[in-house]
Amino acid sequence: MSTSTASSLRGCSTAYYSSPLLAPKFKFKFPAKSQRSSLSTVEFRANPLTTSSSLVNYRGKDGSCNSNRRRRGLLLTATFPFLLPLHEFVQDLGAKAESGMSDYLLMKEEVTKVVSKGKAASVLRLAFHDAGTFEMDDNSGGMNGSIVYELERPENAGLKKPLKILEKAKGEVNAIQPDMIALGGAVAVSVCGGPNIPVPMGRLDSMEPDPEGKLPQETLDASGLKQCFQRKGFSAQELVALSGAHTLGTKGFGNPIVFDNSYYKILLEKPWQSSAGMSSMIGLPSDRALVEDDECLRWIKMYADNQNMFFEDFKNAYVKLVNSGARWRSS
Prior knowledge:
two-stranded antiparallel ribbon; mainly alpha
C-alpha cells in the first residue's frame, strides 16, 4: 500500500466517524425538571445510527474513499428511518402541549370568575394548608387535595367556604382537586395585585388524609419555624417570603384585599408592642417572632424596601410549595 493510499484511507475513516449523524445518542427530556418541580420526566432515546459494512469499505478503483457515494448511502440507510418517527413524535408532543395549555387557560378563567378580592385570603390559606403538610423525611403530605378529608381539624377551621368557592369553578372544567387548589391560590394573589404565578398542572388526587400535626404551629418562635420549614425543604429566606401571604386577610398587615409588601413594613414597626387600641392584636405570634431573628430580619428589611424582589421570591417559593409532595400523572 502506497503512502498516499494509506493517508487517503485514514482520511476516509476519520471523516466517517466524525459524522454528526453518528453521535452516541440523542436524549430528549420533558417536562423540564428543576428544584422547584417534582414532575416526572419521560425520556426518548435514539440508539446510535449504524450503516452496512459495504458503506464503510467502499473504495474507488484507485483505493480512495468515495465520500459522495458513502454520504448519500448513509443518509438513505440511517437518517430517514430515524427522522420520520421523530417528526411524528414532535408533532404529537406539540399537540399535547397545546391541548394542555388550552385546559390550563380555561381552568384559570373559571377560577378567576369565582375568586374575588374579598375571598382571596381564604382561598390562598386553603392552598397553604393543603401543601403545608409536606415532610421530606418520609415524603408524606403536600399538595394532593387531601385537605378535603381534613376540614374538621382545628387548624383547618373555616376552610370549607373557600373549598366550596373552588368547587363552583371545578364544576365547569374537568379539573383535578389539587390542581384547582394550587391554581386558586395563585389566582388569589394576582387578583389582589400580586405577581402572576404560573402553576404546573397534572397532580394526582389523594384518597386519604395526610398525617396530623404537620402544619407549622402559630405559636412557634423563629428557631422553631426555621426548623419546621427546613424539614419541608424550605430555607429561612423562603419562609420569610411565604409569610408575606399574611398581607392578605384580617391579620392587620395593611389593606386586607391588596397583595403588597405592607406585611414587612408593619413587622419592622412592631405595632403589637403598643397598648393602644387594636395594635396589640396585629399578627400571629409566629409573625412577630420573625422580626426578632437576625437571619429572618435581614430578608424582612429587603422585602420592605423592594416589593419587586418580594414578588419574585414569593412567586418562586409558592410554586415550590404547591409542587412539594405532589404525585404527577405520567402523561
